[in-house]
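tool=predict chain=A
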Amino acid sequence: MRGETTNKARATQGRDFTGLRFGNITPTDIDGLIEYKGKCYIFIEAKMTGAEMPSGQRIALERLCDDLQKVKPTILILCTHNTPIDKEIDFSKALADKYRYKCAWHNYGKTTKELVTNFIERMDKK
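tool=predict ok
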C-alpha cells in the first residue's frame, strides 16, 4: 500500500555514518518529503514529544528549506509523537508543533495532516 514502509526489517537497520565525518559534521536524515506537482516541497521531521532536534540537523534542514524556498514554496514541519517503539508512527496524526516557511519558524499545534493539507490547498490556488 502506498505510504507504508515496504521493508520494515531494513527500516530498523542501523546506519553507520562514522566514515562520513567532516570535522564535526555527519549526515542527517529526513523523515518525510513530498514534492507536490512541481509546485512546492514539504519536509517532515518527527521527534518524540519533549525531544529536541539536534542542532546540526536543525541547521542542515533550515538551510535546505531556506535555499529551496528561493526556487519554489518550501515548508519544513517539525512534528512530535508519543508512539511506543513497537508501533508504527502515524505521521498524519502527529502534532505539527512548528514549521519553517519563508526563512522563519512558526508555531502551529494541529496535526501534520492538517498542516500539509492547508499548505497544499494554498499551492493549488496559485
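The first helix runs from residue 8 to 11. Residues 28-124 form one domain.
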